[in-house]
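Progress report, Aim 2. The chain analyzed during this reporting quarter is listed below.
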Amino acid sequence: MPLLICLLVCYRGLFCWFQQDDFSWLRMEMHSVADFRRLLLEPFAQGTIRPLSERFFFLLFRKLFDLHAFPYRLFVFLTQFANLLLLTAILRRLTGSRPAAATGALVWAVNIALLYPLAWTSTYNQILCSFFYLAALLLFLRHVETGRWSFYFWQGGAFLLGFGALEIIVAYPFVLLVYCLLLARRHAWKALPLLIPSALYTVLHLWFIPRATTGPYALHFTGSMFRTLWNYWTWALGPVRFSKVFPIRESTALALVLLLTVILFLALLLSEGLRRRTGLFGLAWFLLTLGPVLPLRDHTNDYYLTIPAIGLAVAAASALPSLPRLVGLLWLLVYFGCSVPVLERGLDFLYERGQAAHRLIESVREARARRPGKTILLTGVSDYLFYAVIYDEGLRTAGLSGVYLAPDNEGIAPRPGLLPVDHFELPARATLAALRAGSAVVCDVSSGRLLDITNAYAASAPARLKAAPPRRVNVGDLYMADQLGSGWSGFEGTHRWMGRRAQVRLAGPRSPEDRLRIQAIHSEQPQAGPVHLSVSVDGIPIGRVEIRNNRTGEHIFPLPPSLIGKQEITVTLETDRTFRIPGDERDLGLAFGVVELI
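Predicted structure tokens for the chain:
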């Protein structure tokens, strides 16, 4: 029954297409064993290392199914069905009741935490880590039942594999220890060896991956953690999230949260013996697995509740049968009545967003086929579509290059901590040059399909667009040639090579906070070692950096205050050595890349 209800409520998630971070993972390319090792083990976003749930999963499925999303989604659902079966088996052992086990599995199956994991492929890490949590615990329960050490060692293997899925697995030994102390005390010592891998992983993670000190991923070990805990508790129960989607007052939602909380804790108080201890174990699971994300005061997400919500399900399954039947039914009615509609509405939104992303990519693909070699400029791109597809370079993931936002695209709101919108625009000066040369086509996408408006746009563009120097120059862009000084080789499709010395012209800085960012690649002759790049602006040295072999070097430099107010500045790049490729007479330094003010 839990599997059937999950499918009936969340079936839309089976048909969601790729969006947002999905494109970053889909864009991974592997050409050698070294690439495979780097892609699996090199820290990515926010210093995460998740080789199983993100790297290997996307590498394998992209190789097998390319951009056909259904196989990805089907595998996610199959993993979740396995999770529900595991949870049901665990609850049957903990409660001794099949109806209670089914009820608990249903509580988790429709929790709002599962909205994104069941619709957005990038959050598969939550589903896979849940699998390792539940598989490890069930194996330990089998060890306790049978005394067979093979189950214990298999449990340890599932726990260790969990480190490849999500960092939250570090809390598993503590969850297991609490289980033993409450329900199997003579086995408590068996949880202690598992603390060693968690401690080692935590130390290595903190040692080799610097923690963010600012921004949304900064950790705040303050009293704010209690407020964050309360927020997550209210979200897990459902009414607060219900009030954000449906027209009920926030005060009513909070009253329903208090009602659910009081009933659940009253049920724990009325429970006796095994049921009470099992309920307390469920609450401990919730707290322990949520604990690692509580310091993320400025970065809270519903899907962080995916694994903690299992604890809520355990508590509900064990405690609610102790109440009078009508009171227990009232709890379930309020919980399901709030959670299910939120899940359905959210899944509809994510499904439609994925379909919009798919339509945009297919429309641009058709436009590219009709106009090969043309630069495509998009207008009428909504905020919704921009962050679903373009921001994470969904078009490039689909093999579509030479596509930009038009420089006067409106309606896209900048978001704190993210790149500015003009990062994705073709600058006005380059746009006017491309229109004059007849090498660009302008398409309006506001209606949901591409409409060619090149003639109308080109007629009005000279009066609307100011041909000012750009703040961002993609050296590998054909239309940026006018911004390049001496020292550059020819355009090579996605990049240009510089010799020992080259120059780029940018708009001058607007404020003291402006900084210079460069992106360069050194991928030849790995035995020769790194290249050192010296950077100066209008003759003023601003820094020297090391760019290692086979790495993309991204470096940020402060700018001298004397440059503020200048209409245009010249950035000079100089390497400490060059090399030659066999059969090529050029002296090559670095491949670029981007030079921009941020």
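The chain has a mean pLDDT of 89. The first strand starts at residue 375 and ends at 379. These observations will guide the mutagenesis work planned for the next reporting period.
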